[in-house]
Design goal:
heterodimer, A: 280 residues, alpha/beta, 60s Ribosomal Protein L30, Chain: A, 2 domains, four-stranded mixed sheet, globular, B: 185 residues, fumarase, five-stranded mixed beta barrel, 6 helices, 26% helix, 26% strand
């Protein structure tokens, strides 16, 4: 049994919220550079140049990459031999988010309830996913998730007979309908299988994978490549102004599912795919 | 790229008629931020017979909810938000004299039609370029609805704010044209 004090968790979450919002991950930057070389549209190239310059300004001048500093989505891989002391995990994460968003000059974008809509003032609560894993370590990933891209998300339960073609058709239609709204070039998380709620969880979790890393199962890796190719033929392009860079990457996660079901969930992330992680 | 048109606010009808979808514009002068909540409150107060908190004639509205300013700076990150959420309010804003709207993402048929009949323009700024755009904002002041926080109405002074015309006063839509040009399936 290894002890981790909540103060460490609070400090770590605070730092991750700030880091994620000011420093575009290196893999995303590299993919934008590659897209700049390939893009055929002049306006599209200009947009990608602006995004790269924006990332530099954000880091240098300490201005958030985007004013929508997001919902704080927090993934925790918690070793089952860890004993958290000094308080409870969920409160510690929320305290970290509170401090990160306040001290880091980040926008507070969370309302207490979806209909009466009063801002909580400190960007809490976070949306927390905890997975128990073997070992005595704790890994925390903060994924600040912008509203514009999140709002384009879709879920469907297909029939098993619709198969892989049905999945592709649904994903491509979702991208086509979203058009310029989710701030393309996007990163797509696709969750296939599981149950109603688990498919959406997988779609979100797929966004954590670094760009360019394919699914370990060659069958699903091929599906990812086919989706990238077809999505980039839609013509939507950077910011939807036309071009061949609509998706920077597509990540698929799958799960076992019921004999009657084929759930498919699509979670959009914008080009500012922000994430930061730390291990305790 | 050297083919930017320079414009100053407030926008005249001649300015509006000179713009075509696809034009790149560097906008200078005062513009006003307003998002969902500010639109709703403004139009509800007009319905009650109250005066608008700002003069709407010829102004440009920026769909933007900035992040907080660091000490010594006018504003934090300040890129555009997705515009379709303001679609239900936009024809009425045009009737009230607003001439330009800055956001990102597509507009409804009703908005595109209203831009044509009431002579207005919808510009896109680059979504997710909040740090870059922030540097073109020289002054910022909350002028109404302070309690709405990031959604309050702010008067911004911008210099060479980089925009592209998406929907002009002739019914054109750059999102449709751009996509058609590069579509391969």
């Amino acid at each position: 049994m290894r002890e981790i004090h909540v103060d460490r968790i609070i400090g770590t979450v605070k730092n991750l919220c700030i880091k994620a919002n000011y420093e575009l991950p290196q893999d995303v930057r590299e993919f934008l550079l590659k897209a700049l070389e390939k893009e055929e549209s002049e306006v599209g190239k200009e947009v990608i140049k602006q995004l790269l310059e924006n990332a530099d300004i954000a880091q240098r001048e300490r201005i958030p990459i985007c004013q929508d500093t997001g919902s704080a989505v927090v993934f925790v891989e918690l070793g089952q031999d860890v004993h958290i002391v000094g308080g409870n995990l969920h409160e510690a994460i929320n305290e970290g988010v509170r401090r990160g968003y306040t001290e880091g000059y980040l926008r507070k974008s969370i309302v207490r309830d979806p209909l009466r809509r009063k801002n909580t003032g400190d960007n809490t609560p976070a949306f927390i996913h905890v997975e128990l894993v073997p070992g005595d370590k704790m890994k925390i990933t903060v994924l600040p998730k912008g509203g514009g891209s999140e709002n384009m998300g879709k879920l469907v339960i297909l029939t098993p007979a619709e198969g892989i073609e049905g999945v592709k058709k649904f994903v491509i239609k979702a991208v086509e309908e979203a058009g310029p709204n989710p701030c393309p070039p996007v990163v797509l998380g696709v969750g296939i299988g599981g149950t109603f709620e688990y498919a959406t969880y997988l779609a979100k979790k797929a966004l954590l994978r670094p760009l360019g890393v394919r699914h370990p199962d060659p069958f699903y890796a091929k599906l990812e490549e086919e989706l990238i190719d077809e999505i980039n033929k839609l013509g939507i392009g950077p910011q939807g102004l036309g071009g061949i860079t609509t998706a920077l990457d597509v990540h698929v996660e799958y799960s076992a599912t019921h004999i009657t079901s084929l759930p498919v969930a699509v979670n959009f992330n914008c080009h500012a795919t922000r994430r930061a992680e730390a291990e305790l | 790229m050297g083919d930017y048109k320079r414009l100053k606010t407030p926008l005249s009808e001649d300015d509006i008629l000179s713009l075509k979808s696809g034009d790149r514009v560097l906008l200078s002068g005062y513009i006003y931020t307003a998002r969902d909540a500010a639109h709703k409150r403004l139009l509800e107060s007009l319905d009650k017979g109250e005066e608008p908190p700002i003069d709407l004639k010829g102004i440009v509205i920026y769909y933007c909810g900035p992040s907080p300013a660091r000490p010594g700076r006018p504003i934090g990150a300040a890129g555009p938000t997705t515009a379709y959420r303001m679609d239900p309010f936009t024809p009425r804003m045009l009737e009230l004299g607003v001439k330009g709207f800055i956001g990102k993402g597509k507009r409804s048929k009703e908005v595109i039609e209203a831009l044509k009949t009431l002579k207005g323009v919808y510009f896109a700024a680059t979504g997710g370029a909040g740090a870059l755009l922030s540097q073109r904002i020289k002054e910022a002041e909350v002028v109404a609805y302070e309690d709405l926080g990031p959604e309050a109405i702010r008067k911004l002074y911008v210099e060479d704010f980089p925009l592209i015309v998406v929907n002009d006063a002739y019914g054109n839509d750059l999102y449709e044209e751009g996509r058609r040009k590069y579509r391969k399936i």
